[in-house]
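Continued from yesterday's entry.
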Amino acid sequence: MKNKKKEILIVAIILILQTIIYVVAGFEKSYIHMDEAYSLGLASYDKTEIQANDDFYDNWHTKDYYEDYLTVNEDEIGKYSQVYENQKNDVHPPLFYLILRFAMGFSINHFSIWPGVIVNIIIYIFITLFMYLILQKLLQKEEKVKEKSIILAFISSITMASLSSVLYIRMYALSTLNILITTYLHIKLLESKKLEPKVLIFIGISCLCGVLTHYYYLFFLAMLYILFAVRYIKQKEYKNLLFYTLTLALFGLVALIIFPYMIKHMFFGYRGQGVIDKLKDISQFMQNIGLYLLRINKYGFNNLLILLAIILIGFYIYAKKKKIKFDKNEVANLILYPTIFYFILVAISSPWIELRYIIPISGLAFILIIYYLYKVFKNIFKENKANIVIGVLLALILVSPIIFRFEPESMYSDKKEIVTKLGNELNVPTVFFFNSSHNRFLDDILLFATVDNSYIAKDLEYTEQNIQKILDNKDVSNGIVVFINGGQENDSIIEIVKKAMNFSNCEYLKRLNACDVYYLK
């Protein structure tokens, strides 16, 4: 009983420390990616894109117009139907957006990153807990299992990949949790001498939540199913295979009843068709694998994966030459194969090479690499020496972001100055000369939600008369800010604006994801 209380206390301290780290990182988050804007808009707005409004282009708007897309207003309290409707017309299932919509209800009429970040912080409390449970199963034959498990669970939750996931207001933290819960339940199933109905039911519920969060979850689940199907067939446990299969099929049917549009999304929508086309094209396979390995190296292992892999391979070869035998670990294999399978399929099928797509398995990849390193070291050296070496490597992982000077991908600290400058220091009339064939407006909606007056000029013919018409009756004594997105002659546009408004100075402020920003006076 005393040991149990001590364990609970240590876990609680770890979770509190983890949460403090997340909150500090949250205060440093300075910008949002367009997909984060989509998350907020799809959860709260009455249509998928603000650009679909009839008055969006070629009109002056206040910052409230754009902030409305990112917030829940008083007249929207208690309304959730638009979440389902928006997701029907988008490319993702609705579970995360429903949770986010609920959280946004605590920040009425005001944009804030905190509802989304706090949702992810809460999710990561459960991620760490389930990682702790999984690690206890993985390390069950080792000494001081609980101590090692909580340390590894904690470190896996504060890598740059995990911090990026917490700060990124999308469904990837929830997808990570779904995968960990499903993994843990399958470990329980692996350990069961007979099929327990409650374990099957929980597996079904976790699968239901997983597929209603992100379709890539099915990659992980598919390999888990194959492993258990092969296991049951080898052991001639056909009854177990039948019940296991029926459970997944039943909850899959429930998912279809709840959100039948997933069939359209996965097989007939543009994103689903893109995945199918990429799965047919293996020419980019090795390149994509390499690019994703670089991503997981930088963020999942804080730039030390390559070093860890070299050490692991080198010592493993040495151990084999010394004819050192390694015990098989069914739990490790149960984690390893679905993780690799997910990684490969995402590398082939994802529309872009982005960290977010592999975040759901980055924690599992982290503990697997550390586990295999530990096993190799333990079989070559004594236990104490293996613990010391692993401790040194973990310490290097923790300090490497400071050494290499990089931050969570979704913190965007380089955008902090431009947000402050446009919203506070300048706050002058702002014109976005918008080429609609390069439509990524939501990448910069946060800036437009900070300035008092802005105008989106769609596919404008650049003449002095048209520029003057836009800025007629506007106070430009302190200058204007100009946004120009892709596919246009920036220098030519700037010269026409300067001539039309009798400006003499042009200051280049920032290159953003989708456009360039200038201050003219």
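--- second protein ---
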Amino acid sequence: MKNKYLLAVPLLFVLLPSGQAAANNGEAKSQQSEREEIGLETIEVRATVRREELQSTGATVLENSDITDRVYVQPLDMATQSPGVSIVQYGENGIAPQLMMRGFSGAHGGGLASTLDGIPLHDTGHSDGYFDTGLINPLEIESVEIIKGPASVLYGNHAQGGVMAFQSYKSGDFNRLNVRYGEDNTVDTAAVIAQPALNGKLDQVYAFQQFMTDGWRDKSDWTRQNASGRWTYHFTDAFSASLNLRGYRSEWNSGGYIPNTWNPERAIANGPGNGDSGNGGERDRFDGRIWANYMFNANSQLTYYGFGTDLDNSRYDVRVNSQGAVTSATEQANHRQAFGQGLAYNFDGKLGGRGVTATLGLDYLNEDESQNIWNLVRGGGRARADQNTQYEFNLVTTSLFGQVEYQILEPLKLRAGLRYDNFSGDMDTGPNNTASRRGGPNAHYEATTQDAFSPKAGILYAPLNNLELFANYGRGFSLPSMSGISAGSNSFFTKADAEMRKIDQFEVGYRANPITWLEFGSTGYLIDTSNDWTYDPMTEVYNYAGETRRTGIENYAKVTFAGDWSVKGDYTYQEAEYRTYFSETMDMSGRRLTNVPTHIANAELAYAPPVGLGGWLKLRYEGGAVLRDQPSGVNAQYDAQNKTTVDAQLSWRFNDRYKLMLDVTNIFDEENYGNQGVPDENGFFTYSMQRPRAIFLTLDMNW
């Protein structure tokens, strides 16, 4: 991995908290039981998320048992177990899927954030917050927190629509090995080894994964490997420190998207696409993380942390038209180095005889990214021609945040918090930069410092042990563009009065567990944005676009019966529209936002005995989204395909240690293409692979 391990050296003098503790998982539990489950001494922080904080929101927490023993196209798919979350698959292997949450995109929209043990998963070359979860090994993930909207005080930039925070195991006494073989010669081997504290001092957790597949058609092979180690040393009962190292490599090829007229009726299951011209890429990443925690007493602690990321990402992208002619061919090489550190104080005690928790923290993040793009020789595979883009930028973020939760009455708790973010940076272009939106060659830009204040507030009312009512407000934001710097654009680097996008979310909901075998709840939300800017492809300029509104209601229920049987489901109805939207070429005011499903539903029947035959059957539906013909500069919108998938698993549990599973994904659709773009003049869509029907056999060993 080149010189990436050198990053571990400067990390030895800083200290890191390890992400967030588990948040409310949508299951109705009393406040007393929550406090019994999570104590201050068990919390590792970046600074702190406790169940108490997220009880007043519509957040979901998935435990390890929820996310393992399932087949994913990519680990990001596990987010669909949260109501209202959808995934757009591109079928391009190393191209990360697009996470959609409450009408915000985790792809180039930059509206969602994702972290692994507190380290941002943002990819290189995509300063809008695009992230890749390919380095996630599900076996080593203890929990996944899915926070909807800008509800948490811990997250700032990129967290407009929410956060997906992965938390790995920090300690334990178990070994687990998972071996899977399936469709397209897919082999996936993963393991996690957790050793208990040696002499009560040293906890060790190791994990690795090796994945490889030939792919669903020619030139679609993909391999990826990741490995991690975590060492936590307990110097005293009050003081402990931890070091976490992680490496990841991914190499892939791709047949590309299937152009419009090549497959108008989805008849060519293994169509050549544009793979003959060398689509694919590779990614190398190394993360180092260190933290230390000191307990002043049973009620208060101080945590100091630091982390570093070094990431190289290359992509070869060849596009063809409906006649099969190459229209563009590029190689994009990106490099990202990021270093962060911070300090957090946490208190959990009583004031005036009532429970009070408090968090106060400081974060610092320094990001350096560079991008180089070359044209490829037409018909020459991956041979470089001239260079057209060459730039690098530095972004420095300093954040302060604080929050207090107070139990005013036994059934009533209030939460109030404030976050402050300050941004500065500069950008340089190289002599080979000819892209006008990057500012031309040999240019230097110094950004105008910008800052944002984000207030948060919540209320939790539990009149009964089996009923919780909650409401909250959260302000969020997003920075202006990092890359569009042409004249008139809303650029962080070149426009002194560039405005941040502002997001205001209101949530209200309830959770109920009236009898032991029944759980259900609902969350309603309203999100307004202002100071929106959009990129106009006709003029290559970012323009003021006005405001948007998103509203929805997310519902879930779970019933257990006959001991080992369960039925669970969720249904979300959501609407998203442009309240005002105007650029130089189009007026979309009153139109629906694109790629936002109106309906999302899941239903699952499961049987899980302690030994013997078990299994589950799951139905998922997404419908009511629209696509927009943006490149033509007109107001045309088209209905996207509705998606219905059925997945199933049969399993045989031999005992507590061994389990054999047979999975079938997307039972009723062998191909499962999705329309990725608007139709051409003949009414044909561009297609990509979603989740094709496939069969996998898995042996899970846990001892």
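The radius of gyration is 25 Å. Helices lie at 8-11, 31-37, 51-54, 64-67. Will compare against the first tomorrow.
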